[in-house]
Amino acid sequence: MKFLVTGGTGFIGARVVVNLWERKIPVVVADLSLNIEWTKQIALLKHQKDETKLAEIKKQIEQTSFINLDVSNRDEVKNVFAQFADITHVIHLAYLMSAEVEADHHRGASVNMLGMINMFDMVFDHKLARLVFASSETIYGAKHSAYGDENYAVKEEDYCSLDDHFYTYGVMKMLNEFTAQKYIKNKGVSIAAMRPPIVYGDGRMRGSVLWACEFATNPALGKKVKLPFSKDSRDCWIYVDDVAEQFVRLALKPKLNHFAYNNGGHSVTAEELMQTVQSIVPEAEYDFEESVPRTSLIDRCDSSRLEEEIDFIPRSLKDGISTQIEEARNRQLQLNY
Q1: I need a labelling partner for 291 at 20 to 30 A (CA). Which of 17, 38, 110, 265 fits?
Q2: E strand or H helix at 148
Q3: What CA–CA distance (Å, rounded) separates 271 from 92?
Q4: In the CATH scheme, what architecture does the domain 3-199+238-265+296-315 have?
């Protein structure tokens, strides 16, 4: 068994790689802009108090191949599979986020559409056991009111019309899923999609949702934070390490019962989110942007399908935020040292 993780030194990808190292599963880490030291640091900080585990992780790092890869370049993709002919599984996370897509639609389509198709072709051409890719809650559109009851948790089979969409990114994810199911039906390959909500944690370095890091990391380091929406804005949040665990478990399970899965998470208002932060860091300072009533995202999603499929329930919101705060402080201590 050997995994290829594309976008493997990104915010979620690095956590997936660390998860595979912890399982002692060989991995090829591919990214357009490799951030190798960042990925190593996540693993080493996490296990710094366990010398035995730390030694094991260091051994896994030494055996890992890190490669530059532009997934939109078909020749580059084919060369990876020629060079590493023993790849059996792929977790595909190489993708341009919403702001990047809107800034450059040509590049966005190249990476997000052609890049995805290049990877789907590799599943068939190299008879891979499975490819799991990141879809998104944005396929459900920009407003929860499209589903009626504000307390309703959106399910995988729920439909959202184009009229209710805001992000080009989300519509691209819809087409990715549609195309994947064509490959499954016509070529008999094993592909699965997960639809994460807001993924929070320490270490986001780019994108339009840096606040999904800053909301807890800033207070951890004694800095004020401002969230760009109202205190009453409701969203669904899930910790980055739990998303990584979900990706790996879904990739490893021999047989799946479905194609698409909601990751789940905790539905809270922005005020409830920051009250949770303040319960851990009492001196936390924060403001909201009350002129922006809500984010352009759904408020709740049902995760029972995925929980049943992989037998995993994400940690509580408080536990996730506590872990993020501890990691941010440990990283700062290391920098100061």
Answers
A1: 265
A2: none
A3: 34
A4: 3-Layer(aba) Sandwich (3.40)
